[in-house]
Design brief:
CATH architecture of chain A: 2-Layer Sandwich
CATH architecture of chain B: Orthogonal Bundle
Radius of gyration of chain A: 17 Å
Number of strands of chain A: 6
Number of strands of chain B: 0
Order of helices and strands of chain B: HHHHHHHHHHHHHH
CATH topology of chain B: Ammonium transporter fold
CATH class of chain A: Alpha Beta
Shape of chain A: elongated
Structural class of chain B: mainly alpha
Helix content of chain B: 55-70%
CATH class of chain B: Mainly Alpha
Distance between the termini of chain B: 56 Å
Number of domains of chain B: 1
Strand order of the largest sheet of chain A: 2-5-1-6
Radius of gyration of chain B: 20 Å
Oligomer: heterodimer
CATH topology of chain A: Alpha-Beta Plaits
Largest sheet of chain A: 4 strands, antiparallel
CATH superfamily of chain B: Ammonium transporter AmtB like domains
Number of domains of chain A: 1
Helix content of chain A: 25-40%
Number of helices of chain B: 14
Largest interface: A-B, 9 and 18 residues
Structural class of chain A: alpha+beta
Strand content of chain A: 25-35%
Order of helices and strands of chain A: EHEEEEHEH
Chain lengths: 113, 411
């Protein structure tokens, strides 16, 4: 089991949800986050005063899946989120030790999907 | 007595109340960080409560009561509204009940100290703010109002023109705000970190409601439903429109984008600048007043404040001080008797004297407000301490001064 965390551009969320659905990855947690990478921040202006490099709005996706779905999910996120510009985001993949379905108490691969 | 006039001035009084709460409260509340929004709403709200009482108890008498001798202050004759009832007072407004004139003026006394709170926002102790506000209303607003508007007031006798409060309301509060901002010091982290407005839609809504309420402030100051009120209404809308557009264009030229905060700020500056002039100038000249106020206020906020590094948090001096001073001087330039027989001609209509009177008016009001505010600051600071503890400032005034939070993260 793997735990995938992806940081993407907010305006690409709808496309990523669609491409994930196409590879049958339906379970995903989404949150609004702020962050900063190589893109740095955008300049904002308040009454003539410039505020440079404020944090950027991003979307964070969290997906837990079995091994067979890891590569399709990664490819789906890239397909949906990529524009080729700086700021497209990142995908982090890590091992997942345990999953428990609260309703039934099932554990592991059975509980994930 | 005239029922049309009475109805208009009563309605105007309600419009001016709306300028303090919710208009100014939300205009300011949106500009601060989310941990301080309630403190701004509370300060505006409690001023409405406290100064309403101060006004009927003794403030009205000090400001408009029969002069005590040499035009400095009204007496105690009208304390507790003694003798202020249904009968008109022909010295001020012959066609409406005296109590209607009184309550209309009450709303002006309320909003003026509320304007100042933007200067010391996000770092003042609530008790100190409250004490300062009551003292400021008593020792700055009431005397100055008497000088300019009260029967026998020495500036009124010199021919000062201030139709709706460019001097009494805006120059006085704006200059006092600058003194307060300098004396109380900068907010922690000012100019090191970004201090972004937490809710610009609040600010825009507040600015729009200020524009709406200002028709009562300016057109209501005709104290009758007549041609003069109509002229004040038209000049107010015109100057405000010109100022809002001008500010947006300046930003577009300077930074490549027109901002809604800029347009809203410009509009408020336009409202301020036309305030002393609205009943004395024609609508075409109101356009000039509006365009120029945005130029002056933009320079004051984006250049002068940046150069001198004082933390006038919400630009009270930059908008109300600079705008009020410009409007008062502009009245001395553009006033014409063709608009208001009871007024005077300004410099552009051949009357140098009126221009000089207006300049003197600005200097007197600015020096008086600055000196008195300095004294009141020192007094209140010695008594209760003006500024909150560093820890409280970082936590935010909502939690430390009001013990409540504006927004929840989890239901």
């Amino acid at each position: 089991m793997k735990y995938i965390v992806a940081i993407i551009q907010p305006h690409k969320l709808d496309e990523v949800m669609k491409t994930l659905e196409d590879v049958e990855v339906n379970l995903v947690t989404v949150s609004n986050v702020l962050g900063r990478g190589r893109q740095k921040g955008l300049t904002e202006i308040y009454r003539g005063a410039k505020e440079v490099g404020s944090l950027l709005k991003k979307i964070k996706l969290e997906i837990a899946c079995n091994e067979d779905f890891v590569e399709p999910a990664i490819q789906a996120i890239i397909k949906g989120a990529r524009t080729g510009e700086i700021g497209d985001g990142k995908i982090f993949v890590s091992d997942l030790y345990e999953v428990v379905r609260i309703r039934t108490g099932e554990r592991g691969g059975k509980a994930i999907g | 007595m005239n029922s049309g006039d009475t109805a208009w001035v009563l309605a105007s009084s309600a419009l001016v109340l709306l300028m303090t709460v919710p208009a100014l409260a939300f205009f300011y509340g949106g500009l601060v960080r989310r941990k301080n929004v309630l403190s701004l709403l509370m300060q505006c709200f409690i001023i409405l409560c406290v100064i309403s009482l101060q006004w009927i108890l003794y403030g009205y008498s000090l400001t408009f009561g029969p002069d005590t001798g040499i035009g400095i202050i009204g007496g105690f004759d009208w304390v507790g509204l003694r003798g202020v009832g249904g009968q008109p007072n022909p010295d001020y407004a012959a066609t409406i009940p005296h109590s209607v004139f009184m309550i209309f003026q009450c709303m002006f006394a309320v909003i003026t100290p509320a304007l100042i709170v933007g200067a010391f926002a996000e770092r003042i102790k609530f008790s100190a703010f409250l004490l300062f506000t009551i003292l400021w209303a008593t020792f700055v607003y009431d005397p100055l109002g008497h000088w300019v508007w009260g029967m026998g007031g020495w500036l009124k006798n010199l021919g000062a023109l201030d139709f709706a409060g460019g001097i009494v309301v805006h120059t006085s509060s704006g200059v006092s705000a600058l003194v307060m901002a300098i004396l109380i010091g900068k907010r922690i982290g000012y100019q090191e970190r970004s201090f972004r407005p937490h809710n610009l839609p609040f600010t825009v809504m507040g600015a729009a409601l200020l524009w709406f309420g200002w028709f009562g402030f300016n057109a209501g100051s005709a104290l009758a439903a007549n041609e003069l009120a109509a002229n004040a209404f038209v000049t107010t809308n015109t100057a405000t429109a010109a100022a809002g557009l001008t500010w947006a264009l300046i930003e577009w030229q300077q930074h490549g984008a027109p901002t809604i905060l800029g347009a809203a700020t410009g509009a408020v500056a336009g409202l301020v600048a036309i305030t002393p002039a609205c009943g004395f100038v024609n609508p075409m000249n109101a356009i000039f007043i509006g365009i120029l106020v945005s130029v002056f206020c933009y320079i004051a906020i984006a250049k002068v404040k940046a150069a001198f590094k004082y933390d006038d948090a919400l630009d009270v001096f930059g908008i109300h001080g600079v705008g009020g001073i410009w409007g008062t001087i502009a009245t001395g330039l553009f006033a014409e008797k063709a608009v208001n027989e009871a007024g005077a001609n300004g410099l552009f209509f051949g009357n140098v004297h009126q221009f000089l009177v207006q300049i003197m008016l600005v200097i007197v009001a600015a020096v008086f407000a600055a000196v008195m505010t300095w004294i009141l600051f020192k007094f209140v600071d010695a008594l209760v301490g003006m500024r909150v503890e560093k820890k409280d400032e970082i936590i935010g005034l909502d939690l430390t001064q009001q013990s409540e939070a504006a927004y929840t993260v989890i239901e």
